[in-house]
Amino acid sequence: MSGKLFVFSLKQHVGTSALPQVSTGDEVQRGQLLAATPKEHLGSSIYSSIAGTVTSVTDKQVVIRAEGPQKQEYQKIPENDPLQMIKTAGIVGLGGAGFPTYMKLKGLQPEGTLLINAAECEPILFHNMERIKNNAAEIIKGIEHVMDIIKAENAIIAIKAKHKEEIESLKQAGLGKKIRIQTLRDLYPMGEERAIIRDSLGVLLDVHDLPSKINALVLNVETVFRIYEAIELRRPMISKDLTLAGRLSRNDNVKVLLDIPLGEVISDILETYAPDYLPYGELIEGGPFTGKSVKRNAPIIKTTNGILATIPFPQEKRKLGLLVCACGADEERMKEITKKMGTTFTGVEYCKNAIKLENGRYKCVNPGECPGQVEKVLKLKKSGADALLIGNCSDCSNTVMTIAPKLKIPVYHTTDFALRSADFPVVRKLKKDQGVY
């Protein structure tokens, strides 16, 4: 590792960019503070995951060259108050949202419900399940710490029923009287927090409502594990769990990587864990549904959940109609994929359940429950589309497939290229017996 460059983005979270606390030429230790949130601002501190020398500092990043053998020791956070320790450690929502956790914990009144998102929502990604198998007891302790902080009456671990081994690991760790397991269907997007609340508590929140409206709080599995580390080990957030998948080799196309150092560059990860990776179409940071195209020189940040190397894009001569779903790829991402397929689009339609919010983002009225897409498919056909590119959830995709084949319109899904690269089934029709694709 000596001589390798690590790149620490100063914006790995919702809120204000962190301000550098080091200068070029400084020698830093593992766990040392690199950048801090300005006072009275929402944000997250950034710590070094390695020992080395600072080679450059800008308003966007700090670059460090690793020096010498790397030890497991780290500089420990000093506070004793659990909530302050979570803030100081720089923990954010690790399901991909990146909202600073200390602020989220302030939003619940006493005797509320803590929900743990263990859905592993995106297909291909498995790192949360691996963390549960390896550290179920520590995850339970992290949950208990959060329950103490927010004075929660009970906690629910929401996990897909198919993850039998992980469920058993949690039970063996000892759930206690205030923590229970809620099994979920194997549908996308069962990890959306309103879907978890709906299927766990029987309440469907409005698209404008936060879980705090019903005195509930949703945290990701890895988030509560990092909370355990911060409180019991005084460990700042310096590493990330992720899934590396796709065109990695001819024999191994999914790898789970636990505790990858923050700041490590994707190209170095590929060379370390997949030195014989195959030619690919693009690299995706995140999951197949909501991930974004990323370059090889991008670093691992707190919200990185996956690195997926897709199959090369098919070159399509037919014009596409784009059907956008609030739960999947957004319009910009779908247009990017269209361009990479070497074609153009004739029209854009949104699922009727997709509601545009004030911030410009879309949310689904009822995540994973589709009202039907016949009207939208017919509109796209009328616009001149010879084929469809859809980014819909499991149920929406199922409804598209009830009409598109009858109209002799071929269908691509934005997830196809990632799913095929990892030998996963593509998103099309639901199985009648299980409700899964």
Automatic annotation (TrEMBL):
Q: Which GO terms describe its molecular function?
A: 4 iron, 4 sulfur cluster binding; electron transfer activity; metal ion binding
Instruction: Give residue ranges for domain NADH-ubiquinone oxidoreductase 51kDa subunit FMN-binding.
Output: 86-229
- The organism sits in which domain of life? Bacteria
Listed GO cellular component terms? membrane
User: Which InterPro entries is this protein grouped with?
Assistant: Ion_transpt_RnfC/RsxC (IPR010208), Nuo51_FMN-bd (IPR011538), Nuo51_FMN-bd_sf (IPR037225), PR_assoc_PrdC (IPR031001), RnfC_N (IPR026902)
Q: Gene3D superfamilies given for it?
A: NADH-ubiquinone oxidoreductase 51kDa subunit (3.40.50.11540)
Please provide the record's keywords in A-Z order.
4Fe-4S, Electron transport, Iron, Iron-sulfur, Metal-binding, Repeat, Transport
Which parts of the sequence belong to the RnfC Barrel sandwich hybrid domain? 5-63
Q: What is this protein called?
A: Respiratory-chain NADH dehydrogenase 51 Kd subunit
Species the sequence originates in = Liquorilactobacillus uvarum DSM 19971
